[in-house]
Amino acid sequence: MLVLGHTSPLYFLCVPVIVIYWFADNILSRHTIDYYFSVLSIILIGVAVDFLLTVFKLIEFTQGQLLPSWLMLLWVLFALTFSAGYRWLNKLPVIVSAILGGIFGPLAYWAASKLSSVEILSPVLFTSISAVFWGLLFLVLRLWHINGDSQGHKLDPNSYNS
Description:
Layout: H1 14-28, H2 33-55, E1 59-61, H3 69-85, H4 94-115, E2 118-120, H5 123-144
Antiparallel strand pairs: 1-2
């Protein structure tokens, strides 16, 4: 909905859904300050990198925006759901997480370029930079959480057998 529906009036329903998710997550989970720091860090780093990709003319948004609201909301949603949504990565070696991030991060942008109003202007350079960024992001996030989950608890490898 964030990528495909950003031109629809229903698009702004995403904001209350994200806020409701955030409140529910905070009620159901006992997060530590580390969790909030990691969420804020992911948002700021992601938005900054997308800003730089735009400034250096590697990507461009057809509506003439430097950074559209849907992209920033996508980073918020990614940051809020990373710990739970990517928990399965904890079963894999850290380097595999980095490789998967380096492959699928750029693929997400390429998919968005086919579905939405973003254009990749320099495909080879963009893909190279994006692969390095996403690989490093997943590497750092895995290393950051290697001794604890998003709530700051020690990881129990048996608790992720789904």
